Amino acid sequence: QWLSDRKKRALQKKDVDIRRRIELIQDFEMPTISTKIKVSRDGQYIMAVGTYKPRVRCFDTYQLSQKFERCLDSEVVTFEILSDDYSKIVFLQCGRFVEFHSQHGHYYRTRIPKFGRDFSYHYPSCDLYFVGASSEVYRLNLEQGRFLNSLQTDASESNVCDINPVHFLFAVGTAEGKVECWDPRTRNRVGLLDCALSSVTADTEIDGLPSVSALKFDGALNMAVGTSTGQVLLYDLRSSNPLIVKDHHYGLPIKSVQFQHQLDLIISADSRIIKMWNKDTGKIFTSMEPEYDINDVCLYPNSGMLMTANEAPKMNIYYIPILGPAPKWCSFLDNLTEELEENPESTVYDDYKFVTRKDLENLGLSHLIGSSLLRAYMHGFFMDIRLYHKAKMMANPFAYEEYRREKIRQKIEETRAQRVQLKKLPKVNKELALKLIEEEGEEQQVTRKRKQKNLPSLLKDDRFKVMFENPDFQVDEQSEEFRLLNPLVSKISEKRKRKLKMLEELEAQEQEEEEEPEGKASDAESSESSDDEKGWVEEVRKQRKLLRQEEKVKRQERFKEDQQTLLKPQFFEIKEGEEFRSFKDSAKKQKLMKKTLGDRLKLEEKLGTLNVSDTTVGSKQATFKLKKTEQQRKQQEAEKQHRQERKSLRRSASHLRSKRGRGRLFR
User: Fold this and answer.
1) 68 — phi, psi (to 5°)?
2) Per-residue model confidence (pLDDT) at position 277
3) pLDDT at 528
4) pLDDT in the model for residue 665
5) Where is the Nucleolar protein 10-like second domain (predicted)?
6) I need a surface site. Which of 26, 50, 143, 492 has the fewest CB within 10 A?
7) For residue 371, pLDDT beyond 60
8) Nearest to residue 625, comparing CAs of 642, 646, 604?
9) Which of the four pLDDT bands, split at 50, 70 and 90, describes residue 137?
């Protein structure tokens, strides 16, 4: 989204999805939005209505392009194709107009008394049934060219209607959440279903009264009803209770309900999502959530193609091979889908690399967070792939060489695997592998006697393959945990070590001839490795004694090392103007510095160096005395002594002057 248009066009040439994109029908779109979409009975023409300006477009599937376009005076609520092709069409418009079109174009226009919302065509009698913002159902006979007596319902308004294709039962979905069924022959109501009450179950949460927003018959007995609160109810006409209630969990009105007979699915759609679910169990088969809101869904007959009218110019076409084959006019889709399944390609971003915070820390680029070089996305960032490669090369310059060596080693091992396989022990955990081989041989003997199936070996299992290849998984038999948990291993391990030495010698001798050394565990060894409780307790005690002795030896070695180490004298520097008394003074100062300011003030208050008093305004006044250093004290004492000496000199001088004055007077 931050790329320029020029960069997007350049990326479109590299994008696999765009290069695979197929435009089935040329210019299959509307200027602004599309509201309804239908397919003619012969399957050759696809008709769609939309805005702006209000118009209808007809697309020829044999030519894979648009056949014609007609603009209308007002927006179309819904329309119906009466003939097998596009020669007879009826449009119900929002201005109460009913407009008839023939093959050449506009044919006739009339009005109904109230605003219409839906209509259905009754083929045996050539009647059009209109429902809308009225309690009446208006009937317009196309053979006579006049309105007939309307049907009076109990509802205040009607939203949708449909006619059963088998026995031509007429059903009306009302705003009160009820479905009224009428017989067109007698023009009497023959049934009433309360769908609003049936749609409310223990799991559903609704805000208001559910009204019927979609209605569709399937065969002679089944009928699907969609409500304005997002529930779909499947009925058998012989029962007033629904067979199944499916909730979309979005709380949006159901726009369309279709039946898919090959897999017994119901395709229901609201403005946000299309759900396909089994009509017997209610289990979700799949769901699709387009980018834009959905207005209508049309299922191409006897195929796996699905078309949608959206709140966007482009009308979407979906092909789901499992629902059925592709239509005959685009049969090449079957071959394309097979090729896509055979050659799956993953989406690759050529110009940007997605990195997490941990990746940035490993690369040393965490300081770039917040700059224009990183674009925040989900739990990480997008960065330029060139910068990523440079940083990776600087962080680990020899990574490629190591990767190359590892790949070469794997290729060599793969070529070696194609040769005659020899049963050799792995490089890592040889003793464990030898133990598994011995146990496998014993189990094979037991299974032969009992005629049981052989269990898979750990050495051949891919899940434990790394344990015998990666040296990080090497078992440390000298560790304290291993020795205490496996006390009896010591005896068996010594015998296995001898056996391993023998096998290694045999392998070294027969390496040139590439012969297999045979080494099977004897019955005596297997009998010695029995799990006896007394032997286990004794071995545990021995291992504990050995561990204590080892700890004692380690302590003695540490003690000797401590004795050998000579303590060197440490020198400390004293600041100018301070006298060194003892280390306790410095410790006291450190403790005092660790205390909080409040504790230090309290301490100084006790010593008399600080005085805190309340003022008349309400604030605090603090007076304190500065501490004097030794140098300052000496200087003050010298100054005091100097003052005293000067005073004594002045006194002696004044005394002499007074004596001289008295002598003169006597003379």
Assistant:
1) -155, 165
2) 93
3) 46
4) 44
5) 348-396
6) 143
7) yes
8) 604
9) very high
How confident is the model over 636-663, as a mean pLDDT? 79
pLDDT, tens only, 553-582: 888 887 777 766 655 666 666 666 555 555
pLDDT per residue over 179-209, tens digit each? 999 999 999 999 999 988 888 776 667 777 8
CA 567 – CA 594 distance, rounded (Å)? 30
For residue 349, give the 3-state DSSP assignment.
coil
How far apart are alpha carbons 39 and 99 in whole angstroms?
19
CATH of region 22-342: 2.130.10.10
CA–CA gap between residue 521 and residue 529 (Å, rounded)? 11
Asked whether 324 and 304 are in contact (CB, 8 A), the reply is yes
CA distance 45 to 300: 11
b (16+ CB within 10 A) / e for 224-263 = bbbbbbbbbbbbebeeeebebbbbbeebbbbbbbbbbeee
pLDDT for the residue 180: 94
**Contact partners, residue 402, CB within 8 Å, separation at least 6:** none
Cα–Cα distance measured from residue 20 to residue 337, given in angstroms and rounded to the nearest whole number: 11
Pairing of β 116-122 and β 127-132: antiparallel
Rounded to an integer, the average pLDDT of 277-291 is 90
Name the range with the highest mean pLDDT among 389-398, 566-575, 638-647: 638-647
Q: Kindly report the CA angle at 251 between 246 and 255, in degrees rounded to 5?
A: 75
Q: Which residues contact 31 (CB under 8 A, 6 or more apart)?
A: 50, 51, 52, 53, 55, 313
Residues 550 and 324: their CA atoms lie apart, in Å, by 77
N residues, the chain: 667
Q: Nearest-CA neighbor of 262 among 320, 214, 332?
A: 320
CA dihedral 350, 356, 358, 360 (to 10 degrees): 50
pTM: 0.52
Strand-pairing partners, residue 512, are none
What is the residue whose two structure tokens read 């110019």? 313
Domain ranges of the chain: 22-342, 347-411
Least confident of 142-151, 250-259, 506-515: 506-515
Alpha carbons 576 and 569: distance in angstroms, whole number: 23
Burial (Cβ within 10 Å: 0-12, 13-18, ≥19) of residue 96: middle
Structural contact between residues 117 and 76, judged by C-beta atoms closer than 8 angstroms: no
Please state the three-class secondary structure of 74-109 as a single string.
CCEEEEEECCCCCCCEEEEECCCEEEEECCCCEEEE
pLDDT tens for 203-231 read 667 777 889 999 999 988 999 999 999 99
Beta pairing, strands 352-355 & 305-310: unpaired
Interatomic CA distance for residues 284 and 232, integer angstroms: 13
Cα–Cα distances in angstroms (integers) from residue 663 to residues 356, 654, 657, in the given order:
109, 15, 10
